[in-house]
Write a structure and sequence with these properties.
Strands 1, 2, 3, 4, 5, 6, 7 and 8 form an 8-stranded mixed beta sheet that branches. Helix 1 runs antiparallel to helix 2. The longest helix has 20 residues. This protein is about 45% helix and about 20% strand. By secondary structure, the chain is an alpha+beta fold. The protein contains 9 helices and 8 strands. A hairpin with a 2-residue loop joins strand 4 and strand 5.
Length: about 280
């Protein structure tokens, strides 16, 4: 699923900052105004940022600039730390945060020891924000400032994006916003292309290259996600949920839902009920 994510947890530490450790973590294509840094601790994860993607292994990192469309897919068992912060958190000492690459590997750095040092700073940020001992906010910001400064020194400043690249990102962001707002209606690739004043082939190519999803996959995924939320939070009939989420028949709803979750909607609701009952015991 690809969408604009308005983060509400970004002020959870009182400093527009969020950090967490995830196991076997996958998250569909989306974008937000915050900067996101991912460190792979164990295993492998495929990370896509705008039209580029790479498979990262333990110790490697990804840096996602503000406004970039990105996704992560766990490849087998994996563990990652994800750090999210607003660009202005260090505006007095680092007014501009730009690096030469989104994917931080050993061969992308000048100093061979820098990657392990950066790993340790991210782990220190996570520990400070998790343990919340006296002065943890100052320590977290301090470690973050050092981490970003190291990245700026080790990775050359990138050339300015071409107008073509900027237009492609803006086009996909516009498509994402439109689908997010209108997924309950009948939406076709042809209709979306006309809405955005581009050709069908151009939109299809740019959309899949940037998000890692075809238009149809994205639309189905976002509808399934909305359906899962309704199944979990309401007692509505499945047929009502299906039509409310933009599916035009129960047959299509059941098929698409099972492809995404490995169970049909009724089974999903039953499993959720069992899970809640176990937690309450």
């Amino acid at each position: 699923m690809a969408f604009y994510e308005k983060r509400e947890d970004i002020s959870s530490y009182g400093m527009r900052f969020s950090v967490g450790e995830m196991v076997d973590y996958s998250y569909g294509a989306h974008w937000h105004n915050e900067i996101e840094v991912t460190l792979v601790l164990e295993g492998m994860s495929k990370i896509g940022i705008n039209a580029r993607s790479q498979l990262l292994s333990a110790g490697e990192m990804a840096f996602c600039p503000s406004g970039s469309i990105h996704y992560i897919e766990s490849v087998g068992p994996s563990r990652v730390i994800i750090l999210i912060f607003h660009p202005d958190i260090l505006h007095n000492i680092l007014p501009s945060i730009h690096f030469g690459t989104e994917f931080i590997k050993q061969d992308s750095l000048k100093n061979q020891k820098s990657l392990s040092i950066m790993n340790e700073y991210i782990k220190c940020i996570y520990q400070e924000m998790t343990n919340q001992q006296a002065g943890y906010r100052a320590m977290g910001k301090g470690y973050l400032a050092i981490l970003l400064t190291l990245l700026m020194r080790e990775c050359p400043i990138p050339p300015k994006s071409s107008n073509e690249d900027s237009h492609a990102i803006f086009l996909v962001q516009s498509a994402i916003s439109f689908i997010e707002e209108n997924y309950t209606e009948e939406i076709t690739l042809d209709g979306l292309a006309k809405q955005l004043c581009v050709s069908v082939s151009h939109l299809s190519r740019i959309f899949s290259r940037t998000t890692g999803y075809s238009f149809k996959q994205f639309l189905n995924d976002i509808r399934v996600q909305k359906a899962r939320e309704l199944i979990m939070s309401s007692n509505k009939q499945m047929i009502d949920i299906a039509f409310e989420c933009g599916f035009n028949s129960m047959r299509t709803f059941n098929r698409v839902f099972k492809e995404a979750t490995d169970c049909n909607p009724t089974e999903y609701r039953n499993q959720a009920k069992i899970g809640r009952a176990v937690q309450q015991e």
